[in-house]
Amino acid sequence: MFSLFKKKKIIPHIKLSGVIGNVGKFKQGIDFAGQEEIIKKAFELKKSPCVAVTINSPGGSPVQSHLIYKFIRYQAKKNKTKVIVFAEDVAASGGYLIACAGDEIYANSSSIIGSIGVIYSSFGFTELIKKVGVERRVHTAGKNKSTLDPFMEEKTEDIERLKKIQLDLHKDFINVVEESRGIKLNKNDVELFSGEFWSGSKAKELGLIDGIGDANEVLRNKYGEDVVIKKFEKSKSWLSKKLSSSTDQIDQFANIVEERSIWQRYGF
Questions:
Q1: Angle at 192 between CA 188 and CA 198, to 5 degrees
Q2: What is the dihedral of CA 42, 46, 52, 55, to 10 degrees?
Q3: Between 85 and which of 1, 70, 102, 149 could a Cys-Cys bridge form, CB atoms 3.0 to 4.6 Å apart?
């Protein structure tokens, strides 16, 4: 009889899905400005045993990834709340950095996890513009302002400068992973920070995640079958919904191309 009056445990569940950063006018990505209030409200839910975060992202902006990661950790410390992260299809590059905000990380056995590296990709059009008879005219104040211009020949000093920036970003990423995962990491089998990515099953062996399972399964096993999982996620605007409903197939194709291009991308 008393169980009828017993308060159920409510777990706030934050959903983060998409490319990290600004991805277009009508297409939603993950950025700090759009998620700050949602994250804050989730942690303000009183007497929750934990805050759950689901991440489904191939990565993107290093700055936005860091901002979201740090804000989740700040809220967790401030509210003395445990954070459990769940990876869906992919938590790679910046997506995995955000996942490191979790005290525990879970994924599906077929999830794609990792890609702890930095990439910059571009094209060179110098031969093309010669063939079509186009003359490139660039005027700058500052000798390095035209660095990596795709219509000009690459310069050794530009590439060396880019590599230094990439190494700085890579070091920041590695520090986050090592601080988050600590002794759980298994560095004996493979190079964890090479930019390679793995299945959820292999990621568990490597210590990049703690276990296999989805949010509903893990949270109910930990906190009981009667637990209430309350979703917190950014809602689409009326215009975004209208536009997305008419361009679903185009968006699906664009997402595939976009995710392939930034699969191993943490920054740039």
A1: 105
A2: 10
A3: 102
**Cα separation of 124 and 178, whole Å?**
37
Q: Which residues of 108-130 are buried (b: 16+ CB within 10 A; e: fewer)?
A: beebbbbbbbbbeeeeeeeeeee
Q: By C-alpha distance, which of 181, 164, 31, 165 is closest to 114?
A: 181
- The span from the CA of 183 to the CA of 268, in Å, is 30
Reported as a single tens digit per residue, the pLDDT across 88-134 is: 999 999 999 999 999 999 999 999 999 998 887 778 888 887 888 88
H-assigned helices in 14-135: 32-43, 62-79, 94-99, 126-131
Q: Is pTM, for the whole model, over 0.70?
A: yes
Contact (Cβ atoms closer than 8 angstroms) between residue 229 and residue 220? no
Strands of the chain, DSSP E: 10-17, 50-57, 82-92, 104-107, 112-114, 197-199, 211-212, 228-232
177: Cβ contacts below 8 Å, ≥ 6 apart? 96, 97, 100, 116, 185, 192, 193, 208
How do strand 10-17 and strand 228-232 relate by DSSP bridges? parallel
